[in-house]
Amino acid sequence: MTSKVVFNNVTRRFDLKNEPFLALDRFSLDIMDGEFVTVVGPSGCGKSTALNIAAGLMQPSEGEVLIDGMPVDGPGPERGVIFQQYALFPWLTVRQNVEFGLRIKGEPAARRREIAERFIDLVGLSDFADSLPKTLSGGMKQRCAIARAYAVDPTILLMDEPFGALDALTRVQLQDQLLETWSRERRTVMFITHDVDEAVYLANRVIIMAARPGRLKEIIDVDLPYPRTEEIRLSPEFMEIRNRVWHAVYHQ
Ligand SMILES: Nc1ncnc2c1ncn2[C@@H]1O[C@H](COP(=O)(O)OP(=O)(O)OP(=O)(O)O)[C@@H](O)[C@H]1O
Ligand SMILES: [Mg+2]
């Protein structure tokens, strides 16, 4: 197996009231090609910081992130990012938002339309394709951001609490859709969540972080088969792993 995303001793400091603050302390992690990792940890432990550095949107103070062996130098089309705060262009409709990356990729109009249609339908927003973001609920905005990231067909998905604002049913549906595309197209996924069940249900490995300073605490292998099903979710093996993750996160 080859490495796809490598965090090499990534450190990030911020100046808070003229004092240096360690948001991320020597974070190292090797994500394999085609692997699905989830990241959990208390608020402020540096999850978004790590993801934004991998996305090329933030510079590390020390260390580096490698994508396919090459140091990250800004954002790239092979990395699809879904932000914690759904970042939609407010002046564009749902359809135009989803088509945005495809336009940059140089897809012709008819093809853009067709791809956008497919992903808007996937996230259940067909009736709102021509609406502006301000007319959507939080969960609908989030689904639009998901469609936009999926549409450009990235090999790496960097997802920062993508399903956080969704109702339980939509959330489970989108988890299963994500797993389905992931196993079919072998993408590499780094997925941040606060939900321990979600973290275990989706992942090959759960990365547990600790705060003050933000750092890697523990990695728990999820040795459960795919496709993940409701049966697996209710199995004693699932519960056992879930409890270990829960303990590692909340007994820090
Ligand atoms: N631009 C910034 N300037 C100053 N401090 C920052 C900045 N961005 C993040 N931080 C600090 O770095 C720490 C890590 O932030 P980060 O957003 O990575 O946490 P997180 O694990 O994603 O938390 P949450 O679960 O609440 O989203 C926090 O203490 C935060 O206050
Ligand atoms: Mg965050």
TrEMBL record:
Residues 5-232 form the ABC transporter domain. It holds the Pfam family ABC_tran. GO terms for molecular function: ATP binding; ATP hydrolysis activity. Keywords: ATP-binding, Nucleotide-binding, Transport. The keyword Transport applies. InterPro entries: AAA+_ATPase, ABC_transporter-like_ATP-bd, ABC_transporter_ATP-bind, P-loop_NTPase. It comes from the Bacteria. Belongs to the ABC transporter superfamily. This is NitT/TauT family transport system ATP-binding protein. It comes from Phyllobacterium trifolii. The lineage of its organism: Bacteria, Pseudomonadati, Pseudomonadota, Alphaproteobacteria, Hyphomicrobiales.
